[in-house]
DNA sequence: TTGACAACATACCGGGTAGTATGTTCCCTG
DNA sequence: CAGGGAACATACTACCCGGTATGTTGTCAA
């Protein structure tokens, strides 16, 4: 009986689409998890659209066909909801990229694989990624209370360790190529700036845009690597092109 | 008598610093211009700190030691103020970069000079540049009324022509080098992404940070050019290093 | 001198929104 | 088959903030 749990298509999270009123009947814990996930996706979409400050809890609730009470049942405050979305965004990135760091491939190929994974994940989960960007901007400035600043700092540290993944991979690849970087910190910042640039202009064309995303990612990775003085071998490129 | 007009140091635009109460006595037009400029800088700072939506007119007024009435005397609405700041930011960029486009130097050097000018201006006027970024983000999403969307579109077009400056300079430099770009649009986007990346992490150390800024800009331009498959000649690099 | 106007400050209004307090409806356990 | 609690919805409040209406002061032109 626990399985009238709906397989929600993401498209279900649209404006005014009432949640199945007989839903959330199974294990309460499971139901809560699903609701929470739906809130996170809806919130990510809203935050992406209008930014944190300009998004009201009612906006998020309405996009779920639910009410404010529901959201405050799952999250203590608006900022808490934002933090949760941020965290989910980081989880997405880690799950996409971290496995590649354990690859036994050569440093250059490992870096390339990480970069491709990162870039594609970025385009595939745009709303969450824009929230990440907002969170970083938030951290540089004023997030009112001390408690908020604390949690935010914690979240940013997660991001820092994520960037650290690339930093070490970059240095390994450069060292392996026999060259050297004048300013490793700046280089890795620039490297990620290229990969992250899609956040500001990319929006998926249609369903199953993965081919398009891979193609873009390949170009970006190529550019970013050349900036470091590295070059992706032809066979590796062809390997990726098969996926499109 | 028109010159008790103060030479305002930027540091004067601090929280709670009352404007000289006997100021703005000279030509009313001149006084208005000064007030307007002060508002623009204060607003840029506030928008940079907390973002457009989270910044109140009272915030901006308070940072000037003035009141809401003063600001509404110079600007019709909050969004109008934002647009004015945006426009000022674009003016800054054009004044810095556009002269270099008329240079008779070789395409590569011209592109390099443009990029350096752009990058340094970006770091020297950070608050305005962050407002530019916000404006772009705003444009991608929802800016309520139709009139606002119109003016915003106009402003974005200014930005597009600015990017066009780089686009053509990039293609000229690449063509001159004998190579070719697989995807010119993506390449120029990546190129600017590198140069613009400072907006998200750079904050000036102390007074007269121009040396630091030039040094950073040089690294960024180097990276961005290599991404295109180009290389800045050593003597050009040395030329810039003299300025530091 | 006067009065018109620029350049503000003060006072106030109304809509929107974060957060809360309180129902209501199921489910699941004992 | 109670009744406790999870998972919401409804109703309400208090506050913030954009915008306006109005007051005040100095200046300049006639």
What do these coordinates show?
- The structure is a homodimer of 244-residue chains.
- Chain A has 244 residues and is an all-alpha fold.
- Helices cover 69% and strands 0% of the residues of chain A.
- Chain A is built from 11 helices and no strands.
- In chain A, α1 (28-50) crosses α4, α4 packs parallel to α7 and α8 runs antiparallel to α10.
- The N and C termini of chain A lie far apart (41 Å).
- Mean pLDDT of chain A is 86; it is low at 1-28.
- The interface between A and B is medium-sized, with 34 and 33 residues.
- Chain A binds a DNA duplex (30 and 30 nucleotides) through residues 24-25, 28-29, 31-32, 35, 56-58, 66-70, 72-74, 77-78.
Write the layout of secondary structure elements.
Two copies of one chain form a homodimer.
Chain A: H1 28-50, H2 57-63, H3 68-74, H4 78-101, H5 107-124, H6 126-140, H7 146-176, H8 184-196, H9 198-201, H10 210-227, H11 234-241
Helix pairs in contact in A: 1-2, 1-4, 1-6, 4-5, 4-6, 4-7, 5-7, 5-10, 7-8, 8-10
The structure holds a DNA duplex (30 and 30 nucleotides).
In short:
Chain A is an all-alpha fold and 244 residues long. The first copy, chain A, is built from eleven helices and no strands. Chain A is globular.
Assembly category: homodimer
Rounded average pLDDT of chain A: 86
The residue ranges of chain A in which pLDDT falls below 50 over 5 or more consecutive positions are 1-28
SS elements, strand count of chain A = 0
Largest interface: which pair? A-B, 34 and 33 residues
Q: State the secondary-structure class of chain A.
A: mainly alpha
How many helices of chain A in DSSP terms?
A: 11
SSE arrangement of chain A, N to C: HHHHHHHHHHH
Please summarize the sheet with the most strands of chain A.
none
Relative strand content of chain A: under 5%
First-last Cα distance of chain A: 41 Å
């Amino acid at each position: 009986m626990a399985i009238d749990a709906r397989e929600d298509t993401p498209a279900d999270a649209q404006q005014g689409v009432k949640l199945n009123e007989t839903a959330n009947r199974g294990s309460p814990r499971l139901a809560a998890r699903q609701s929470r996930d739906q809130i996170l996706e809806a919130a990510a979409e809203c935050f992406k659209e209008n930014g944190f400050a300009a998004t009201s809890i009612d906006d998020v609730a309405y996009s779920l066909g639910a009410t404010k009470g529901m959201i405050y049942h799952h999250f203590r405050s608006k900022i808490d909801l934002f933090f949760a979305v941020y965290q989910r965004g980081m989880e997405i990135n880690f799950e996409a990229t971290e496995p590649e760091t354990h690859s036994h491939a050569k440093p250059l190929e490992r870096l390339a694989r990480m970069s491709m994974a990162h870039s594609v994940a970025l385009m595939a989960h745009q709303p969450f990624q824009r929230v990440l960007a907002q969170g970083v901007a938030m951290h540089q400035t004023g997030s009112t209370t001390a408690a908020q600043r604390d949690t935010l700092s914690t979240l940013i540290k997660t991001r820092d360790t994520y960037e650290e993944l690339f930093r070490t991979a970059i240095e390994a690849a450069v060292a392996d190529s026999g060259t050297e970087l004048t300013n490793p910190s700046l280089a890795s910042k620039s490297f990620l700036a290229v990969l992250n640039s899609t956040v500001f202009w990319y929006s998926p064309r249609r369903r199953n845009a993965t081919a398009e995303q891979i193609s873009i990612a390949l170009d970006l990775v190529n550019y970013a690597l050349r900036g470091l003085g590295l070059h992706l071998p032809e066979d590796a490129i062809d390997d990726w092109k098969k996926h499109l």
